[in-house]
Write a structure and sequence with these properties.
Elements (H helix, E strand, L loop, with lengths): L1 H24 L7 H7 L4 H22 L10 H5 L1 E4 L2 E4 L1 E5 L2 E5 L5 H13 L2
Antiparallel strand pairs: 1-2, 3-4
Amino acid sequence: MSSETSVVAEQCRLREWAAQIRDCQSRPAGMSIVSWCACHGITKANYYYRLRRVRKACLEAVRAEMPAQQMVPVQPELLQHQEQIGRNLRPGLDISIKGFSIHVAESTSMSLLADVLKVVRHAE
């Protein structure tokens, strides 16, 4: 029971801190964080501690909401397709998006591929 109480208390505290952070971020132009903190009775160090804790909680919430990565089925004949480039035969999968060509081999890291696809998605 006390662990449930602790969780609820922490959630309430994080909501209060998030409201303070939003208030600080919408402070008047020209007012420093130090001045805002002094007006609200907290130290600059305490403000940044709260900011860090709220960001961490938000990141954890986003990760919890993200669906598990799924495997996308690819027809075997596409994976075994070999494209001749110059004199080299390269087994794997070639992807063309927005004028970019990406060659994905069996040894290509999934994290590298995900990063490359994010960059290409935002490219113009």
